Protein: Transcription elongation factor
Amino acid sequence: MERELLETFEAAKKAADAAAGEDDSPEADRCLDALRRLRDIRVNTDVLVATQVGKRLRHLTKHPHSGIQAVATDLFGYWKKVVLEETGKKNGSSENERSSDSSGKIEKARPVKIERNSSSSSMKVERSSDSSGKIEKARPVKIERNSSSASMKVEKRDVDVKGQRPDSVKIEKATSNGSKAQPVKVERVSKEVSRTPDTKKTASVPTGPPKLTSLVKCNDATRDKIRELLAEAFSKVPAETSNDDRDEVRSILDQVNACDPFRVAVTVESALFEKLGRSTGAQKAKYRSIMFNLRADNNTDFRRRVLIGQVRPERLPDIPPEEMASDARKQENKQIKAKAMFDCERGGAPKATTDQFKCGRCGQRKTTYYQLQTRSADEPMTTFVTCVNCNNHWKFC
Structure:
């Protein structure tokens, strides 16, 4: 069947290639006849997969000849339907088998009782199960054996089907030989271990990648030198944090110790190189400013913020100088700004009021003035006049 299918398809494809661009031709008729013969051949999924004619037929569904295109599309849909039906049957049968296996019930054995009595021994075995097939607990099993020479008793407590061990197992044996009696008693009690779901072991989960043991080099002498300087600066942060006088700084000592100075140094240098280029280029001044503030002995706060991630390395190329200052320097700058603002709001020196000057804008003579020596000493002073009515300003010598 595979050979017939391939030969017929090759004939159809060859005729379709010859009939390209012609509406009515003998090649087109031969192609249509071959496609109809393919429609009559009984195929299955294995044959279609082995011959791969389904993939090759897709090209004929876009043939310029309308008749070939219609017949090829119909044949393609027929083969697709065959594959889907066989796949659905296989899936349905497998699901039925699984459902039958899952729904099947195994009947449990009914209670069996065996009793055996004799002059020398006595034995009794009991076994029971529910008809529904669900056993919650097994019933006690007792075996008693009595004879003139020995006495043995085995008692087994209830056992839960969840696999827990019995609460206790006791074995008592007494042997009598004439007047001598050797009692033997073995007792084993298993302790039940109770596990509460709320109790969990606190495992130390690493918050990040492991620390680097050495500095990562990039085979560039200049960049490697910057990385060494940064690593040296960041390595001093734990000692500086532990010796700091501020309680809020010492409280984050564990967070500082968890940071990796080598990894942070490499990250900072890479961010600077990516944004600013080489340190010897046009951004040399920016490089020097950042490196100076990170390595300064009186600026421990800035490099600590960079190490613990409060200042991201990506922000360093664009960070303003005010943010690179230490906490003490920031407080000083704040006081300087407050003092300057107070001086501005307090106002300047009082100005003299006169009516000798006439405003050229409003024509009023209510003015104030003051004088400054803006030129050389042998030149007259410059007079600055302000109109009180319209706030017009002018000056003259």
User: Anything to note?
Assistant: Residues 341 and 347 are 10 Å apart (CA to CA). The longest strand covers residues 168-177. The two ends are 118 Å apart (CA to CA). Confidence is low (pLDDT under 50) at residues 103-109, 112-138, 140-181, 189-206.
